[in-house]
Structures are given as structure tokens and as C-alpha cells.
Amino acid sequence: MQRIRCKREFGLTLLIGLLLSAIHPISVYAGAWPNKPGSGLINGSLSVEGATRLSDSHGEVFDYSLLSSAVNLYGEWHLSRRWCLGAFLTPGKYLVSEDGDQLGIGDATVSSTFYIGKISQTHFAFQGTTMLPLGTENSAFLPDSVYPIFGQGIYAFELRPQVGWTIGSYWFQSELAYRHRTEGRVPQGLYSLSSGHSFSKKWAGRLSLSGMFPLRSTNPKLPGDAQRYYGFQTAALYRISPSSSFVLQWDGMVTPGYELPVGPRLNFGYSYTWK
Q1: How far is the C-alpha of 81 from the C-alpha of 33, rounded, in Å?
Q2: Residue ranges of the alpha helices (H) in the chain?
Q3: Are the beta carbons of 240 and 271 closer than 8 angstroms?
Q4: Which residue of 16, 155, 192, 195 shows the fewest CB atoms closer than 10 Å?
Q5: Dihedral, CA of residue 23, residue 26, residue 32 and residue 34, to nearest 10
Q6: Helix, strand, coil percentages in the chain from 3-state DSSP, rounded to 5
Q7: Cα–Cα distance measured from residue 226 to residue 210, given in angstroms and rounded to the nearest whole number
């Protein structure tokens, strides 16, 4: 009976990854480890990003002043020891640039993670992720006149195997993902390596390295298809209580070949967990 249930949960994870794209990263915070059934997490954050340069679709860098702030919401719920659902949304984003001010929302992302098992101290999981383009001019759900472009404009889904290790108070996780995009866009590969450590009962830290690259020749009519990036992410977590934490995160990203800001991003967040 347990084996049948595990197969059903894995099938639902794959189904969510494939089907919801007909109706995008973030990796479920739970990672490649099992969790207590019924437990979960809610995270709210404010991100601020500034840039004085942009890189265009041909990789050329030019001067351009930009300041962006956004409110982000993320939640996850562990339906069983092996199965976890997660959702991410940017309900508000404000952009100040040389071309004027804009207010809108970002894309929504839904994730489903299935914990496969472990060999010795190595844990394995599989994640299906979908993106719903709410923050774009192509959105079928929101009026374009009210919500300017703040997303990718296409539906997408990801298939993401995860491997995790725990050594004392340290943890490590690696991911390699395949992203399928609609409207004839080139599929992409993504990778990340993360490590975390609990310094005390109150303080913990995390470091991540990640990147993205096209998986085949790009479409010359869609120069954005050549997009690739590599970057890092550092975070410090302070536990207020066993269930509440403040998080400070700094992202740095290089994006040759795509119109994205060249500059760091700061995230100030609060997380609440229950078990």
C-alpha cells in the first residue's frame, strides 16, 4: 500500500510539472529532504535592485539608470513525508527608470517535489515546476492597461532532480534542471550548487551558485533566446523563535546576451514555519 501511494505522489509531481504549464526559480525550500506531514512554511520578502547599466540582447553593456522594488510571497505545504507543494508570487513590483515609473505584478510559480529516498547520507528528490505568466502583456487573467510587463510572457515548466547531503551542521544540495518554454522558445538548462550551515541556535547561513544556458541553437528572430546567466546568492537567517525567522539575502548575477540589469539585489524577508 505504501509503495502504491509513493507511485501516486510521484505521478502527481510529474503531472503538475507537465499539465499546469497549460494554465517558473523557484526551488522548493524543503530541498531534497523528507519532512513531517502537515508541516509548512510561509515567507514574505521585499527585494530592492538598482543598476546603472544594462546588457542588451547582443551582450553589449550601456548606461541606464534603474531602481526596482518588489514584494514576494512564497509558501509550501508537506502533504506527506515524501510530497511537498510550493507556490511563489510577486503581487507587487515598482520600477523607476529613465523611461518613467511602472507598477505591476510578476509571474506565478507552482512547484511539486517528491522525495525519492536516500543512500547512506545522500538524499534524492524530483521536482516539477510550472510558471504562469501573470505579469505580462500576454496574460489572459489580468487587464494589460493596469498591469505592465513584469514577466517572461510565456508558459514554461521545469523538471528538476535534486541531490542533498548532510554532514553535521552543514548541508549541501545540487540541482540540474530542464526548462521547456512555449511559443517556439529554445529550451534551457539550469544548474545550482548550494551549501548551508547553522552557526548557532539563532544564526544560519547559505551560499548558492547557479546558472542557465540554452540547450540548442537559438532563434535569430528571438535574440532573447540566447540568454544565459551565472551568479551567486548569499543569505543570513536569524531565528526569532523556533517558528519565526528574519532573512537577509544578497543576489549577484551576470547576464550576457539578455536585457537584464547588471547589479546586485537585496532581499529582506520574514519566514514562519509550522510542524
Answers
A1: 9
A2: 2-19
A3: no
A4: 195
A5: -60
A6: 10, 60, 35
A7: 17
Model confidence, pTM: 0.78
pLDDT 10s per residue in the chain (275 long)? 444 445 444 444 443 333 333 333 333 355 788 888 999 999 999 988 877 766 554 556 667 777 888 899 999 999 999 999 999 988 888 878 777 777 778 888 999 999 999 998 899 999 999 988 876 554 444 444 444 456 677 889 999 999 999 888 899 999 999 999 887 788 889 999 999 999 998 999 999 998 888 888 765 555 555 567 778 889 999 999 989 999 998 887 665 544 455 557 788 999 999 98
Dist. CA 52–CA 262, nearest whole Å:
8
DSSP string, 163-195: EEEEETTEEEEEEEEEEEESTTPPPEEEEEEEE
Contact in structure between 40 and 274 (CB atoms under 8 Å): yes
CA dist., res. 210 & res. 132, Å (int)? 22
Give dist(CA 169, CA 184) in Å, integer: 45
Which grid coordinates are listed for 90? 510577486
Altogether, the residues listed in the chain come to a count of 275
Q: Is the dihedral of CA 8, 126, 153, 137 positive or negative?
A: positive
